[in-house]
């Protein structure tokens, strides 16, 4: 595969360039949701083991990001949002990125398996494979449902955190997964609405490019209608408290209101701003949901 510019400054990448390959903003969300899954899990885990688990999950997420940038370097060079990434910018070669990603992938899985438990290690390996191969190499360029199915990779970290403590999964960890899974399509489709030109130029079949903006707005609304009550499920199932239940209901109402605004606002700059508002709030929304669950868990342990 040909990726990025014709000439690279092989071996000249800085530490910052390699950190950029890890997608640190995505990694921070992975660490946070994995930590919440760990704290909500029944039982206990030694703080040092918990730290090792979080570090391995973070490195595994970063490895996925590096492999994604290696494979997607050709389309990253076309899109304005990604053109300055290390490979298309000529700071890291594709071979260097591939070696970096594979080394971190293997290392994070082996260490998690040896020092925490092998179920969590295998789960992390599957997550890396799902993001790098199933999503990046297959779904992203072949179907407008890429985000729907591929979004599972970003929803697995709280389950891996849970598995690091318990050695397995449960209904509660599946609910944590489903919240992120159902959140991902409206979050990314809102982005795609105001970045559709980038995706069209790169030949990525995002929903607005393939099915049109009207269909995308409809799908955003449908997923938002499902997400809002689903986010209250931790309270309904008893592993989150009344503060979370009330806050999740109010946040869900705001999210749904913004999705309705995206659905009805279809022309010009107003439509773009509606999509930007939903995209921006969706990040805060997910963070607050998990922060509230974490806060209640920590408060419960202190009482």
TrEMBL record:
Domain of life: Bacteria
Principal EC category: transferase
Documented EC number(s): 2.5.1.141
Keyword Coiled coil appears in the UniProt entry: no
Annotated transmembrane regions: 20-41, 48-71, 109-135, 147-169, 175-194, 220-237, 243-264, 276-295
Keyword annotations of the record: Cell membrane, Heme biosynthesis, Membrane, Transferase, Transmembrane, Transmembrane helix
Membrane topology, as annotated: Multi-pass membrane protein
Gene3D superfamilies tied to this protein: UbiA prenyltransferase
Cited Pfam families: UbiA
GO molecular function, one term: protoheme IX farnesyltransferase activity
Pathway info: Porphyrin-containing compound metabolism; heme O biosynthesis; heme O from protoheme: step 1/1
Location in or out of the cell: Cell membrane
Catalytic activity as recorded in UniProt: heme b + (2E,6E)-farnesyl diphosphate + H2O = Fe(II)-heme o + diphosphate
Lipid biosynthesis in keyword set: no
CDD domains referenced in this protein's UniProt entry, alphabetically: PT_UbiA_Cox10 (cd13957)
Family designation: Belongs to the UbiA prenyltransferase family. Protoheme IX farnesyltransferase subfamily.
Note: Carbon 2 of the heme B porphyrin ring is defined according to the Fischer nomenclature.
General function of this protein: Converts heme B (protoheme IX) to heme O by substitution of the vinyl group on carbon 2 of heme B porphyrin ring with a hydroxyethyl farnesyl side group.
Protein name: Protoheme IX farnesyltransferase
Organism: Pannonibacter anstelovis
Gene responsible for this protein: cyoE
């Amino acid at each position: 595969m040909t990726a990025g510019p014709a000439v690279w400054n092989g071996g000249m990448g800085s530490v910052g360039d390699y950190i950029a390959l890890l997608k640190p903003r995505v990694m921070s969300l992975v660490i946070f949701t994995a930590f919440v899954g760990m704290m909500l899990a029944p039982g206990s885990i030694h703080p040092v083991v918990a730290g090792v688990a979080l570090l391995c999950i973070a490195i595994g997420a970063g490895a996925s990001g590096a492999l994604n940038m290696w494979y997607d370097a050709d389309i990253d060079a076309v899109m304005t949002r990604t053109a300055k990434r290390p490979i298309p910018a000529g700071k890291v070669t594709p071979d260097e990125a591939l070696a970096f990603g594979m080394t971190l992938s293997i290392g994070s899985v082996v260490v998690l398996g040896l020092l925490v438990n092998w179920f969590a290690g295998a789960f992390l390996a599957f997550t890396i494979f799902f993001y790098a191969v199933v999503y990046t190499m297959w779904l992203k360029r072949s179907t407008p449902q890429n985000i729907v199915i591929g979004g599972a990779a970003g929803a697995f970290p709280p389950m891996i955190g849970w598995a690091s403590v318990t050695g397995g999964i449960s209904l509660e960890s599946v609910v944590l997964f489903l919240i992120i899974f159902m959140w991902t399509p409206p979050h990314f489709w809102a982005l795609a609405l105001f970045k559709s030109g980038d995706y069209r130029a790169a030949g990525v079949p995002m929903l607005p490019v393939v099915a049109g903006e009207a269909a995308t707005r409809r799908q955003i609304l449908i997923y938002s209608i499902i997400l809002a009550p689903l986010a209250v499920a931790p309270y309904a199932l008893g592993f989150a408290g009344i503060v979370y239940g009330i806050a999740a209901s109010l946040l869900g109402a705001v999210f749904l209101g913004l999705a309705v605004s995206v659905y009805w606002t279809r022309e010009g700059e107003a439509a773009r701003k509606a999509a930007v508002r939903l995209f921006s709030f969706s990040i805060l929304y997910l963070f607050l949901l998990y922060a509230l669950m974490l806060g209640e868990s920590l408060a419960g342990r202190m009482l």
